[in-house]
Amino acid sequence: MRTAEFNFALPAELIAQTPSSARDQSRLLVLERIAGKTSHRRFVDLPEYLQPNDVLVLNDSRVIPARLRGRNVRTGGNFEVLLLEENATNDWWAMLRPGKRARPGAKITIIDRNDRPASIVASVLEINAEGHRRLLFSGNENVLTELEALGEVPLPPYIDRPSPRAEDRDRYQTVFARVPGSVAAPTAGLHFTPEFLEKIRGRGVKVCFITLHVGPGTFAPVKAAAIADHIMHEERYEVGTETARLINEAGTSRVIAVGTTTMRVLESLARDPRGRIVAGAGRTRIFIYPPCQFKIVDGLVTNFHLPRSTLLMLVSAFAAPGETRGRELILGAYQEAIDQRYRFFSYGDAMLII
Prior knowledge:
This protein is of the alpha/beta class and 354 residues long.
């Protein structure tokens, strides 16, 4: 299939710039795959579509305040630093702007949110093939523990604000976030509250968690003309024994993934011919696009995704497993959402595909 087939026109005013007034007050577009039927509901109606013994799986990765400001020790030039992945204590891969000034050997003093120099210095060690810089931090025991004081929430590039707001620290984070490591939120989980999860459990639904640390590649458009030529970004995951047990014992009950990140983990681990998953940690580059068969997941809660993105291709594959017509189903549903003035992307409304 061609990347251009996954394009659509979105009015700029439908890109949500702020979260909804309450997490669970978003709208919910429901797509019933077999019937090809759509309906327009509220997110609080989600439990109506869940059944006793369904297994609801969420991503508990925690967004870190990964955006830092710095100054070149030698020239005084300003840098923006986006931490990507920790290699070891104080050893990180990062994106730097302007990159051409961040050559190996450069030293950068980190600036706090009051524009004052902190005691932390980042030294550029090397540059990888993607242009990311490997940084070694000094002047502190562990820069990760300093991020709450120094860093900013790394909001997506389509949220057009000069800087994050105080509310973003809370709202660009799921209420069940536990394991620090993401530089982008697993946004389908943003709609849940503790009370809402308890209501779901009260219906006999089994709730469990995986961890996938979301990287900036989640926002990257597919540039290859043929989608099969796209090189997928890599992300780290972990699945615990209890989650693996609940999924493997689901039997005829459904497994509902909350978010494409959860979907990617579960389908990455579906190696057993019987469709079982194995607990453990690893890295995945899985790229799901039509046509694709799914071994684990029976339903998907997700947000609305960027044109020409790998995530739009994933939901298109899930809308019609093993076929290519899911693209038409999803783009048709997206057009309905546009016509109905749904809010799109990270802070936007939700979609249920069953």
